TrEMBL record:
It is found in: Mitochondrion membrane. Residues 51-63, 89-98, 180-215 have a biased composition (Basic and acidic residues). Its main location: mitochondrion. GO terms for cellular component: m-AAA complex. One of its GO terms (molecular function) is metalloendopeptidase activity. Signal peptide: none annotated. Residues 1-107, 180-222, 873-912 are annotated as: Disordered. It is a multi-pass membrane protein. Keywords: ATP-binding, Hydrolase, Membrane, Metal-binding, Metalloprotease, Mitochondrion, Nucleotide-binding, Protease, Transmembrane, Transmembrane helix, Zinc. This is AAA ATPase afg3. It comes from Extremus antarcticus. It holds the Pfam family Peptidase_M41. Residues 439-579 form the AAA+ ATPase domain. Residues 876-903 have a biased composition (Gly residues).
Length: 925
């Protein structure tokens, strides 16, 4: 077409042919049998129009570039698919910038594209909008590839098919790439130009030349960074813009069809021989395809001249339609060999297609959306449905992230020594391997919450200087079966790529629970699959692979046996609550982070350690922080001992209840109740020494007495004397109420709970009752069998009840005896408590004199008190039952405990000791 436009004489000649043909066809069309003629005329006109004349001389020069008068509309290029040319045949053809193989946009197309571009540009940054403008300019200047337009035409006429969609995609991508490359080349050219000029410049700039040439060498790199940037943006933009345009054109088409009646069809097109073929759509509508060139000759203004446009009419039935067409053709005398072809098609609308796919699309969309949300909520990076099987483990770099060292982990020296071996294995594997030693694969760190298991694992990574993968057991658990196993695989695969390294699985009980225990009530396939995968992966290492797996759990007892066998988690490291010395060291670590100017830190550490039996490392860290907060509230320069004490009270007892107003009668009852506990604690030899007693309500308690269990030491065993003294002391509140008031209150309920639990344990677990003997009866919570059935007979149950009652009554008698003896002292303490609301150990010494029994350990060092090192032993017990009661029978020596004295601390009996010991720390009425 471009070459045609450059030869106006050709246009003039062909226009004459077309006019002639059109005129002829018009005349002939009126005659019934003239159907083939216009076709012939059309063929001629096309032939001449597309074939350039070799000899242009015979064209009338005066008419060069002009169309015949009255026929201008034939050349005004109004068809959307015609190459662009300014309207009006009189004008000189402008310079053609269309590339070979390209054709220009029609004004209508240009407008549509501009609309789409304007829509896309909205809300874009200015730089991108510029790119879009540039792209549009280029399209206007160079047109679209002819192949692309042909395909668009096909799509418009016959609909979209996968092959056409692929072709469109290929063409638009190709075009986008070309455009981007061109832009880049232009940029190169522009940048090189000024540089050339600089080098040409003579004179003093000569010296700068070398630098410039050096610069020039660098520039291609800079340019390259630009190149990729432009290429990416522009190509992406163009592809999406074209696709948007095509969709726009396909889904919201311009008017490309119109309904006509049978009569119109016959008179206007059929009888004039303009019909090329008929397609019956879905048996109820007929699409009329016309000889477009003939139509444009006859009816140049008609929309039917535009490509993609067609007429249609509705039919009642296919048979009736066929009959009518046959009759019409017979009337026109068209021989059967030249009859108009009729074909049949069934097709659905875009809307129907969309509706058919709608539910599927919605479903896929919903899955995608929710999986993305699930993904982004947790580990971040690997979100989305495709990232589901990816491990969520966080990798910490030993150089930047894991700064914890063994020095930051205080106490737990044995655990540290044990785990130190892993560090030396990772640092110097050769030492072990040359002796043929197999390196342990992993260790389970178990113990109560907050005792520093995670911290120890981090310190191991920090010391060994290897990458550290940290993941929580619950992160493997997903609602889809197989995801957990796939995450385990991914985690270990990652670890193997980063050897030597440490994997730390926190709360491993989330996936490592014993399989037999889980199966109760249905089982859990997903968890089992995940566990099996861990078992396989841990077996799958070869001994050379330096991957150490550490796991943390609070419940080592529920873990699957297979997980704990040697070759998997070879070592089990139990981390208990820290001892007095351990607490001291942990306080040392955390006190470094707060300002304690002017304080004797050594003394503070010791005193705080003595004040916080049963505290885990996390509690200690919290306490120190609370103390700093309290100090900050009072605008202090440094954190003082009193701040720490307040913090401990707050951590253990809760907030002071200032809003709770008690009546004078209630206050008096509370004061006598607490004084009863205090007197017992003071005068019973084996009871816990009193530290502080208060009637200020705190948390749930109306008053409290604070003791130091075990005399500030770290005993894990209790003998019968201690138990009896503790029970008697616990009953002191109620006994005091009985002695001083006409009636008693409900305030002793928690005391009774503790006493009953302890007495029951003495009878059913610790073999401290002659009637029951050396038996162990598990609680309902301890095993599944006991949940349904009691492990003893009715007769034994009765005996247990009797024994428990007897022991409690003995404790009661012991307590009452003491409080009646010390009624005056009790009154003094209670009245002082009423007036001061809180008494310390020093107040007690002032009122009652020195405690008759010395305390053990370092208690006196930090809390005053004259005597130390008083011998323990039977006979010095003021109200003890070691030598008076029938229970025990061992002459006051520590009873032998069922479950093994030296057994692991998680054994039932010692853990109960621990619990009772901790409970004595609680505040009580
Ligand atoms: N031995 C210790 N030395 C110093 N700080 C400690 C120690 N133990 C615990 N802590 C403090 O307690 C915090 C919590 O400890 P960590 O997370 O290691 O406990 P954990 O045993 O893993 O708890 P959980 O079983 O609940 O996961 C630590 O960040 C640290 O501040």
């Amino acid at each position: 077409m471009a070459s045609l436009l450059r030869r106006p004489q050709n246009i003039a000649r062909s226009s004459r042919q077309v006019v002639e043909a059109a005129r002829l066809s018009q005349t002939l069309a009126r005659r019934p049998a003239s159907l083939p003629r216009p076709l012939y005329a059309y063929a001629r006109s096309r032939q001449y129009a597309t074939k350039p004349e070799k000899d242009g001389k015979d064209v009338d020069q005066s008419k060069q570039g002009k169309s015949a008068k009255g026929m201008e509309h034939l050349y005004n290029q109004s068809s959307p698919m015609s190459p662009s040319q300014p309207p009006g045949g009189d004008k000189e053809p402008t310079e053609d910038t269309t590339k070979p193989g390209f054709s220009k946009l029609s004004p209508a197309e240009e407008k549509a594209l501009l609309d789409v571009f304007a829509l896309v540009k909205k809300g874009m940054p200015a730089s991108m909008a510029d790119d879009i403008n540039r792209a549009m300019e280029r399209i206007k200047r160079e047109g679209l590839p002819t192949e692309l337009r042909e395909t668009i035409k096909e799509v418009q006429a016959e609909g979209m098919s996968p092959a056409r969609a692929a072709k469109l995609w290929r063409l638009t991508t190709h075009m986008a790439r070309e455009t981007a490359e061109k832009t880049v080349n232009e940029k190169f050219a522009k940048k090189e130009e000024p540089e050339q000029k600089t080098t040409d410049e003579p004179g003093p700039k000569e010296s700068g030349k070398k630098e410039e040439s050096g610069d020039k060498k660098k520039k291609p790199n800079d340019m390259f960074s630009n190149v990729t940037e432009i290429k990416f943006d522009l190509s992406n933009f163009l592809v999406s813009a074209f696709v948007a345009y095509l969709l726009y054109r396909l889904i919201v088409p311009t008017e490309n069809s119109r309904e006509i009646t049978w009569q119109e069809f016959r008179n206007t097109f059929f009888d004039k021989g303009l019909v090329e073929k008929l397609i019956v759509i879905n048996g109820n509508r007929v699409r009329v395809y016309l000889h477009r060139e003939n139509v444009s000759s006859l009816y140049p203004e008609s929309p039917a001249a535009q490509p993609g446009f067609y007429y249609y009419f509705s039919i009642g039935s296919v048979e009736a339609f066929e009959r009518r067409v046959d009759e019409a053709q017979a009337e026109l005398g068209i021989p059967s060999s030249e009859r108009i072809p009729v074909s049949y098609q069934s097709e659905g609308s875009w809307f129907n297609t969309f509706l058919a796919f709608g539910p599927t699309l919605l479903f896929v969309g919903a899955i995608f959306y929710f999986s993305r949300r699930a993904g982004s909520g947790g580990g971040g990076g690997s979100g989305g449905i495709f990232g589901m099987g990816k491990s969520r483990a966080k990798k910490f770099n030993h150089e930047t992230d894991v700064k914890v060292k063994f020095a930051d982990v205080a106490g737990m020296d044995e655990a540290k020594a044990e785990i130190m071996e892993f560090v030396s294995f990772l640092k110097e594997p050769g030492v072990y391997q040359k002796l043929g030693a197999k390196i342990p694969r992993g260790a389970v760190l178990s113990g109560p919450p907050g005792t520093g298991k995670t911290l120890l694992a981090k310190a191991t990574a920090g010391e060994s200087g290897v990458p550290f993968f940290s993941v929580s057991g619950s992160e493997f658990v997903e609602m889809f079966v197989g995801v957990g196993a796939s995450r385990v695989r991914d985690l270990f695969a990652n670890a193997r790529k980063n050897t030597p390294c440490i994997i730390f699985i926190d709360e491993i009980d989330a996936i490592g629970k014993s399989r037999s225990k889980q199966s109760f009530g249905g089982g859990n396939d997903e968890r089992e699959a995940t566990l099996n995968q861990i078992l396989t992966e841990m077996d799958g290492f070869n001994t050379q692979e330096q991957v150490v797996v550490l796991a943390g759990t609070n419940r080592a007892d529920v873990l699957d046996k297979a997980l704990m066998r040697p070759g998997r988690f070879d070592r089990q490291i139990y981390i208990d609550h820290p001892t007095m010395e351990g607490r001291k060291q942990i306080f040392g670590v955390h006190l470094k982070n707060v300002v304690t100017t002017g304080e004797d830190v050594e003394h503070i550490k010791g005193r705080l350690a003595a004040l916080t039996p049963g505290f885990a490392g996390a509690d200690i860290a919290n306490c120190v922080n609370e103390a700093a907060l309290i100090a900050a509230r009072t605008n202090s320069d440094s954190v003082k001992m009193k701040d720490f004490e307040q913090a401990i009270e707050r951590v253990v007892g809760g907030l002071e209840k200032k809003s709770l107003i008690l009546s004078p009668e209630e206050k008096k009852t509370i004061a006598y109740h607490e004084a009863g506990h205090a007197i017992c604690g003071w005068f019973f030899q084996w009871a816990d020494p009193l530290l502080k007693v208060s009637i200020v309500p705190r948390g749930k308690a109306l008053g409290y007495a604070q003791y130091l269990p075990g005399g500030g030491g770290d005993e894990v065993l209790m003998n019968m004397r201690q138990m009896m003294d503790r029970m008697a002391m616990t009953l002191g509140g109620r006994v005091s109420e009985e002695l001083h008031f006409e009636t008693v209150t409900s305030g002793a309920s928690d005391d009774f709970n503790k006493v009953t639990r302890m007495a029951t344990a003495m009878v059913t677990k610790w073999g401290m009752s002659e009637k029951i003997g050396y038996m162990y009866y598990p609680d309902a919570g301890e095993s599944q069998e006991t949940q349904l059935q009691k492990p003893f007979s009715e007769n034994t149950a009765q005996k247990i009840d009797e024994e428990v009652k007897r022991i409690i009554m003995e404790a009661y008698t012991q307590c009452k005896q003491l409080l009646m003896e010390k009624k005056t002292e009790l009154g003094l303490v209670a009245e002082e408590l009423l007036s001061k609301e809180m008494l310390t150990r020093d107040d007690m010494v002032r009122i009652l004199g020195q405690r008759p029994w010395a305390t053990k350990g370092e208690f006196d060092k930090y809390f005053g008190g004259g005597r130390t090192g008083v011998e323990e032993g039977a006979g010095k017990n003021a109200g003890g039952i070691g030598d008076s009661g029938p229970v025990g029978g061992s002459g006051g020596g520590p009873p032998t405990l069922p479950g093994g004295l030296g057994g692991a601390p998680e054994e039932a009996a010692p853990s109960l000791y621990r619990e009772l010991q901790l409970r004595s720390q609680e505040w009580r009425l």
